Amino acid sequence: MRIGELAHRTAVSERSLRYYEQQGLLVSERTPGGHREFHERAVDRVILLQQLFAAGLHSKKIAALLPCMRDADGGPNELATQQLLDDLRSERRRIDRTIRDLRTSRAVLDDVIATAEHELPPAGAAAS
Amino acid sequence: MRIGELAHRTAVSERSLRYYEQQGLLVSERTPGGHREFHERAVDRVILLQQLFAAGLHSKKIAALLPCMRDADGGPNELATQQLLDDLRSERRRIDRTIRDLRTSRAVLDDVIATAEHELPPAGAAAS
DNA sequence: CTTGAACCTTACATGGATGTCACATTTTAC
DNA sequence: GTAAAATGTGACATCCATGTAAGGTTCAAG
User: pLDDT-based confidence at A76, cuts 50/70/90?
Assistant: First the structure.
């Protein structure tokens, strides 16, 4: 598929898709005219990339990480180096911290929302 | 306490603390000479701010949110406006999404780590 | 062949918390 | 009183995924 369809199907901008490719996170063939042609597989890859980005990993680490992932074929194509391993463990700790912070923030939000709803019932709701 | 102590106790840079104050997220008295004097209370406040930042809230929303929080005294000082309420609900959805993405990423990391450890045992470990 | 949609590359802009540097003033210790 | 440490302000830099605009080429349909 071409970039427009991939962008549409993943809800990721073409700009970002080109950026991902440039960073080595996404591969594509090229038509004789130079247009990108993506494999069906790219859809899942892009979704994974989005998740990793949302988790705060930077493209460089994702690029280092991807070859060490087990894909559909089974084993990884590369083994994580000691340096990468340390990085990943560090990222893991950061992720755990972030999850805790997210839960805290969500609780704060819920509390504010609940309190406000109590005083300020949404339109269409019956007052207690 | 002064800014240095607060920075040390919260592990947040003085730069950031001044920024928080500038954004209306943190209050301080001033000594006759103009130095900031923080209340003991500021420690918890800064920790909360860090959690909210880590959860991806921007300072402007935090500033709008803070007066609507229930503090130690009991009720909130202000009630959330409808606009803020919509914002917070939107943030809440974003947070839920992010938590899911974090879990996914953590699983990816764990898988890579486990695979690499299997082949590349940490120094000092016995081989299987 | 023509036309419009889709795509290409390149370059510059953006946001937002934080880092950093310069220089002045205050505070603290002696 | 003096030196050193801490603090103040202001300005500029940084990161990095993404937005956006310009100008040219390719693709698909009539």
Answer: confident
Kindly report the nearest CA distance between residue B74 and chain A, in angstroms: 12
* Cβ <8 Å between A113 and B92: yes
Closest to B18 in 3D by CA, of B56, B57, B52, B59? B59
ipTM value for the complex: 0.85
Best CA proximity match to A94, nearest among A56, A44, A62, A63: A56
Q: Give the architecture (CATH level 2) of A1-78.
A: Orthogonal Bundle (1.10)
CATH code, residues B1-77: 1.10.1660.10
* Domain ranges (residues) in chain A: 1-78, 80-122
Q: Has residue A91 got a pLDDT over 50?
A: yes
Question: Which among A69, A71, A97, A98 is the top mutation candidate for probing chain B, defined by the most B β-carbons within 10 Å of its own β-carbon?
Answer: A98
Indicate whether B49 pLDDT > 60: yes
Closest CA to B101 of A118, A43, A90, A99: A99
Write out residues whose CB is closer than 7 A to strand D.
Answer: A 12-13, 15-16, 19-20, 23, 31-35, 50, 53, 58-60; B 2-5, 7, 14, 18, 28, 34-36
The residues with which B36 forms a beta bridge, in sequence order, are B30
pTM: 0.86
Q: For residue A83, what are its two tokens?
A: 């340096």
Helical (H) or strand (E) element with A29:
strand A29-30
List b or e across A99-109, with b for residues whose CB sees 16 or more CB atoms inside 10 angstroms.
Answer: bebbebbbebb
Contact: A112, B50; criterion CB under 8 Å: no
User: Residue for token digits 């959805």?
Assistant: B93
